[in-house]
Automatic annotation (TrEMBL):
Gene Ontology terms for molecular function: protein serine/threonine kinase activity
Coiled coil: none
InterPro entries membership: Kinase-like_dom_sf, Prot_kinase_dom, Protein_kinase_ATP_BS, Ser/Thr_kinase_AS
Source taxon at top rank: Bacteria
Binding locations of ATP: K45
Presence of the UniProt keyword Transferase in the record: yes
Annotated protein name in UniProt: non-specific serine/threonine protein kinase
Enzyme Commission designation: 2.7.11.1
Signal sequence range: none
Species for this entry: Cellulomonas fulva
Membrane-spanning parts: 377-398
Length: 509
């Protein structure tokens, strides 16, 4: 196993104070800096000094320009600045996402179906936004999805992106486990459906806790993975709580024939929304401009043809997420809401006769009245939301004594912050000592030990992600045949409730 190099020296940047290293990559390192004005913590991605050839400079410049075009989207990492350090290395100043990203989470915890669906819809809207701007990502995977301070997934690393008009091209830096067959061919060609495949493969990893064609305990080298991706059927996730309609969505999105997949990331997002509706979960909005499609909630447990989940339907309003117990985004102004009288749940009190109606006249006598119409629409919707909130409050107060759980409570209910919700710290004082036989013993300190703490660790390598394992004690031994001249590991603390360190600690020996 190839040992990973140590971090490069952080550059001196005017107006920034270096704090620590966040991550190491094949072509760049990422550091945490504190910006002086405006004062905030930022992530700075710095190209390695040994990689400063014309091609990589061009890739770095392309990434800066592409991310700048897309930074307005809530599920794409924001870029603040791109420049050259005094030593000539290019760098990007980006939004710092302090919470654990998907790469840290998918092997360490069991992520609920509801959260995976929510992440999938939001990432689908991010990918669709990139596609509408003429950009293919080409490297969607858990490691390229960070988590913002507010819990939103944020797509990053457009370093090998291409324009949709050019399709294929070189695949340097592409990650095999999440790549579609057409990008692994001798003459790779890809389009929007290639990103659809990689996004679905990422969601599969979140559900299964492994990459899609990985065999636990088996041969999982590059050659074996490529062969399975090209020829083997997609295995089931192995989770009983994954509904058949969600497995069907993944099967279609990861078809080996691009023409069978969803034609766009938006179509995949709508298919995931339909699964949410079928499960009676709050339907996550697709964050797209001018995207009015609404989905009809179906019966619990299915009944909806998944292959037809993206069909345009007549005007149907989705039950408001606020009424379903979704506390995730209580400030979002939502559209007209209808309530199904047959649906289970608390009875709703009819609004007063003088309540503001939620409908507006459709026709206006003159085109010049457009601005007035828009103003009345905003006022009416806002007033309607206030009235609806009051109705819901009365209904919930009337049923506060009920102890029956509602669908989705365990996944969406949020209350005041408690000690159990605090960020899990990273291990400290990680040190490695090499023995006479060439093996290396790493030890570390748990700064806040809790009952039943365990530790998730893995050897960092130049290619791919580390294979992680759990140990009960703050020490681990790396055999001589894996240690090489230098060996680096990462380690996280895992609590009894399966929460883990927001950022793993890293050390080399």
């Amino acid at each position: 196993m190839t040992a990973r190099r140590a971090a490069s020296a952080p550059p001196t940047l005017p107006g920034y104070e270096h704090l620590r290293t966040l991550g190491l990559g094949g072509f760049a390192d990422v550091f945490l800096y504190r910006q002086e004005l405006p004062r905030r913590e930022v992530a700075v991605k710095v190209l390695l000094a040994g990689s400063l050839d014309d091609e990589l400079r061009e890739r770095f410049q392309t990434e800066a320009n592409l991310m700048a075009q897309l930074s307005h989207h809530p599920s794409i990492v924001t870029i603040y600045q791109a420049a050259f350090a005094a030593d000539g290395r290019p760098y990007l100043v980006m939004e710092y996402c302090s919470r654990a990203g998907l790469a840290e989470r998918y092997r360490a915890e069991r992520i609920s179906v509801a959260e995976v669906l929510r992440i999938g819809v939001r990432l689908a809207s991010a990918v669709e936004t990139a596609h509408r701007a003429g950009i293919l990502h080409r490297d969607i995977k858990p490691a390229n999805v960070l988590t913002t301070d507010f819990g939103w997934p944020a797509l990053t690393d457009f370093g090998i992106a291409a324009t949709t008009g050019h399709g294929g091209g070189a695949t340097v830096g592409m990650s095999i486990p999440w790549s579609p067959p057409e990008l692994l061919a001798d003459h790779p060609r890809g389009d929007e459906r290639s990103d659809v495949y990689s996004l679905a493969a990422t969601l599969y990893s979140l559900l299964a806790g492994r990459t899609p064609f990985e065999i636990p305990g088996g041969q999982n080298g590059a050659q074996q993975l490529v062969a399975r991706i090209e020829r083997a059927p997609l295995p089931p996730t192995g989770r009983e709580d994954v509904p058949t309609q969600l497995q069907a969505v993944l099967d279609r999105a990861m078809s080996k024939v691009p023409q069978v997949r969803y034609a766009s990331a938006a179509d995949l997002g709508r298919a995931l929304q339909q699964v949410e509706a079928d499960l009676r979960l709050p339907v996550t909005p697709l964050d797209l401009l001018d995207d009015p499609v609404a989905l009809e909630p179906g019966p619990v447990g299915g009944g909806q043809d998944v292959a037809d989940a993206t069909r345009l339907r007549s005007i149907v309003a989705i039950p408001d997420a606020q009424a379903a117990g979704d506390q995730e985004d209580p400030t979002r102004v939502r559209g007209p809401v209808t309530v199904d009288a047959q649906a289970p749940g608390p009875a709703f009190v009819a609004p007063a006769a003088d309540a503001v109606p939620l409908t507006l006249p459709v026709e206006l006598p003159e085109e010049e009245a457009d601005e007035q119409r828009r103003g009345r629409l905003v006022a009416a919707v806002a007033s309607g939301v206030v009235v609806l909130a009051a109705i819901i409050a009365i209904a919930l107060a009337a049923t506060s004594g009920s102890t029956d759980p509602q669908p989705g409570d365990s996944d969406f209910q949020q209350g005041p912050a408690t000690a159990a919700q605090e960020v899990v710290p990273a291990p400290r004082s990680v040190e490695g000592k090499r023995g006479d036989d060439g093996s290396v013993v790493f030890t570390w300190v748990n700064p806040d030990p809790q009952p039943d703490d365990t530790y998730l660790w893995g050897i960092l390598t130049v290619t791919g992600e580390p294979e992680l394992a759990v140990v009960p004690d703050p020490t681990v031994a790396v055999p001589a045949d894996q240690a090489g001249d230098e060996v680096c590991i990462e380690v996280s603390i895992v609590r009894a409730d399966r929460r883990s360190s927001a950022k793993p600690a890293e050390a080399c020996a």
